[in-house]
Specification:
The structure holds two protein chains of two kinds. Chain A is of the alpha+beta class. Chain A is built from three helices and eleven strands; from the N terminus they run E-E-E-H-E-E-E-E-E-H-E-E-E-H. In chain B, strands 3-4-5-6 form a four-stranded antiparallel sheet, with no helix packed on it. Chain B has a two-stranded antiparallel sheet with strand order 1-2. Classes of the chains: A alpha+beta, B mainly beta. Chains A and B meet through strand 9 of A and loops of B. Bound molecules: zinc ion.
């Protein structure tokens, strides 16, 4: 029988460190959850009773140890590193999209300067703080961007865009590093 | 030009995809006459002034929005989620 091995989305392109900013791929399960029509209350109750979590509001990230539950779009929330309880599937469409995305963590003191070059979001700490998640563009890619720490963000794009993501981040990181070099 | 998404907040126009007049939400009864369907599908006003368009927040929360704007001044006057409107 043929043995199949999972490969990472970015393959050999990561990890990457340029100047004071590092990018590392995150190997995690990823599930999208969309409540069925009229079943939001039941789905939220199950999330609360089975997993001890409030349904994340717009832009909200909930942590559960190493696992994350976050607002994903107008209809979905996302589970990262945690499997949604089976019970939830009674009231919501639960989809395993683990192999559909490229997920990276980008960190370092200049991370906000790097992100400012690739997304139109206001990435200053006063507008995009720890525990906040937003949907926007990273260059021309649809992205989910989450602030995990003062100088740490998680960025998620479609898996088919993994190399483009690394390419665009590399250029932004090089540009920021070049500007920061003491003359 | 910026659009205030009710979910995401104020965002650049590039994040949105334009999809014509919001009258698309007022789908006629299936038994309506051919003239009514023809009007619904093909005929649009071209106002100089107030209009309501459908915009998709394609690079954001994926919600469909009804955007009220002024075609003369380009001012965006009001934005609401299309969800909940008759479809
Ligand atoms: Zn939005």
């Amino acid at each position: 029988m043929v043995e199949l091995y999972a490969t990472s989305a970015s393959e050999a392109a990561l990890p990457l460190k340029i100047g004071g900013v590092s990018v590392a791929e995150v190997a995690t399960s990823l599930f999208l959850v969309a409540p069925f029509k009229g079943k939001f209350t039941q789905a939220a109750t199950v999330l609360n009773t089975q997993m001890g979590l409030e349904w994340p509001a717009v832009h909200e990230l909930k942590r559960m140890g190493g696992a994350y539950v976050l607002w994903f779009d107008h209809a979905h929330i996302a589970f990262m590193g945690a499997e949604p309880s089976v019970e939830l599937a009674r009231y919501a469409a639960v989809t395993d999209v683990s192999d559909a995305c490229c997920i990276i963590d980008i960190s370092g003191v200049s991370v906000r300067n790097v992100l400012a070059r690739v997304t139109p979001l206001d990435v200053r700490a006063k507008s995009f703080n720890i525990g906040m998640t937003q949907r926007s563009m990273v260059m021309h890619m649809q992205a989910s961007i989450t602030c995990l720490g003062k100088s740490k963000f998680r960025v998620m794009v479609f898996r088919s865009m993994a190399r483009t993501l690394v390419h665009d981040l590399t250029i932004a990181m090089e540009s920021v590093a070049a500007r920061e070099k003491k003359v | 030009m910026r659009i205030e998404c009710p979910l995401c907040g104020s965002r650049d126009r590039r994040e949105f995809y334009y999809s014509g007049h919001a009258s698309a939400l007022e789908r006629p009864d299936p038994d309506s006459s051919a003239e009514v369907w023809d009007d619904y599908l093909h005929n649009r006003d071209n106002p100089a002034g107030l209009t309501e368009d459908l915009w998709h927040h394609e690079m954001g929360c994926s919600a469909w929005l009804v955007v009220q704007r002024d075609t003369v001044s380009h001012a965006v006057l009001a934005v609401r989620l299309a969800k909940g409107d008759q479809l």
